[in-house]
Amino acid sequence: MKRFHVHVGVKDLDESIRFYSSLFGAEPAVRKPDYAKWMIEDPRVNFAISQRRAKFGVNHLGLQVDEADELPALKERFEAADKGSLVDELGVSCCYARSDKHWVTDPQGIAWEGWHNLGAVEVVGEGTDEAQTQARSGCCSPATTAAATPQAARSGCCSPAATAAAMPQPARSGCCT
User: Fold this and answer.
1) Which long-range contacts does 162-169 make (Cβ < 8 Å, 24+ apart)?
2) Which residues, in sequence order, are bridge partners of residue 58?
3) Residue whose C-alpha is closest to residue 75's, from 86, 84, 90
4) In this predicted model, what pLDDT tens digit does every residue of 8-32 receive, in sequence order?
5) Of 94, 14, 5, 21, which is closest to residue 51 (Cα–Cα)?
6) Distance CA 89, CA 154 (A)
7) pTM confidence score
8) Range 65-87 average pLDDT
9) Closest of 38, 71, 60 to residue 159, by C-alpha
10) Contacts for 22-30 with beta carbons within 8 Å, 24 or more apart?
């Protein structure tokens, strides 16, 4: 089964948590100093907000699969939708979770993430060395992104270097699962 994902950059995390908790009728399932996430069942939505960048609003969209064996079919759909630009990230730590991911960009430049969650982590970029984590300042992409696209990496973008470089600036200004 799949769950729709929306990630929004917010100016005031506490104010936004109050708003979305009232809107969804539930407190966040995950709450960190710079991040909150609701796992809504009706409709099935993974809705996340973060305060890691200056740009506010929709950051990226995605589809989360419940089981690892669902990810290859989702990857095929992503490849069919955006031939030639699919980017894979396996075992990446992002937004307090470790995941296997695939990224594509729609014709408007909006990043789409398809992933399977492998488990929680305590730190945004856990599993990377301290210099890489600080260089990314909240970025969820692998170390190669920080090195290859310093501006995108500093802005908090989750998508890998190839996707970040291909996206228009607004779409790559920050994201996380």
Assistant:
1) 162/85, 162/87, 163/85, 163/87, 163/103, 163/104, 163/105, 163/111, 166/85, 166/105, 167/105, 167/109, 167/111, 168/109
2) 8
3) 86
4) 999 999 999 999 999 999 999 999 9
5) 14
6) 19
7) 0.68
8) 93
9) 60
10) 30/96, 30/120
